[in-house]
Amino acid sequence: MNNLADRLLLYRFLTSTALFGGAVVLLLVANGWQLSLPVIVLAAVLLAQMLVSSVMMLIALRWEHLRYSRAFLAVQLITDAVLLVPAVSVSGGTSSPFAVVYILIILATAFVHSTRFAVTMSLFCSFLIAAVSYLEASGSLPGLSAPTREQILRGVLLRDLIYFATFFVFGVMPARLAERLRIADARLDDLQRDYRLVQQLQRLVVEHVPSGIAIVDENGHLLLLNPSGRRILDRVFGLEEGLAWLRKVAEDARSGATALLEETREYNGRTVVVGYAAHPMDSDLLRGAWLVVFQDVTERRELARQLERQRRLAAIGELSANLAHEVRNPLAAISNSLQVLQQNRNSAVQSDRLFEIQQREIQRLNDLVTNFLEFARPGTTELVTGDPSGTIARVVEVLEHDPEIGKGIIQTRFDVVPDITYDDRLLGQVADNLIRNAVQWRREGTTVSVVLETEDQGKACLRVVNQGPEIPQDVRERLFEPFVSSRDGGTGLGLSIAWRAAEAMNAELDLVRSDGEETEFVVRFSTVKDQQAGNG
Q: Which of 139, 174, 189 is the last residue of a domain?
């Protein structure tokens, strides 16, 4: 039996001895210390109750699963209340000093059991007191004569009412308080369990995360360094130099230097790159300290460079194949026309037609080379802030003087829009290619709509809409890639050039609709506010 059980048994034995022994003494005093047979029997019963109570407590404490159960507590409390009846009966009835012990039993019930059982226990104790009162009123208690009617009304009944009210008050109010305490304890246990869980999770994350995590206080003392961080510092810098580097990072961040940087070192003949970020700690206990997170990103950077190199090589290969295919067709047409011209030198009409074919294909080659150079070498970007309507209007004016387009086909509407950031040359490329594409794909007899307006989100946008055929889904997925075109004679570079030019101006070019009735492209420009937010 553990120490707690030993102490409980000792307390129980001492309390029982004091209670029932005191009852025996009072019994002897009431009978003038005369040892008659009824007195001896009552004393023996009281002492037997004391021993039985202690033995029951001993057995219950030895039985592990009953030791702290509510059922055991209920049985023990009820037993105590019942065993208290003889002690009260032989020591003065309702006037007995031991009657106050019922209040202690009710209080114990309130704090170790439910509110309902505490109320039940107060009613049960009231019933026991009422039973003692009945024995007292009938003159059946030892050492007490039968009271008169007036004594019953003024004494016994008044004490009963006081006992009943006291038992009820001590049964209900402490029980509710105890219930609230139990609920608060349960919530506190839940919070402590959650807190321990969070602590364990944080410890596991800090210990096993592949990144280095360190905390440096305002005096340069290292408060935390996880195992991954120690390995990185030891491998890249050497541990001592690495710790000094951490202190310098925190000091630089505290002084206002950039808190998101990279450190490049030479290690075993190769360049090692360590990326790191410093963040101030906002905890009151760690005020002035900085959290430094760092990682060896050498392999990641090398892998990114390799992937970028492979992507560029693949793109160059694809562009070269497409360019060769696009160049071969005009060259074949020119070659065939020269052969026919050589065979039919005397036909002036046919010669003129063949020369026309050659001139057209040569122009096609020139357009292809020009567009390819624009796509491959977009040039420098000179962003300015202002109203883009003037640039778009100039593009429309030039296109209206193109013999293949003419006036009356392009319909414009320029609303007042917020100032945007744009490059005049690149914006001209975007507008020119979108409008040319819309004109070439429009249905006969329809117009092209060019609208500069402000969207609901406050962004300035350029919309180019025509009434043309629906763009197939497989073409939409690759619409802005180079050499994607379903039009005979098209280079497939116009939309690619427009997309790259828009990207260089921090604008977005999208196909928003192509349902067979209308096809709509939209360019959403970056405003001055967007630029300020991005820089901030």
A: 189
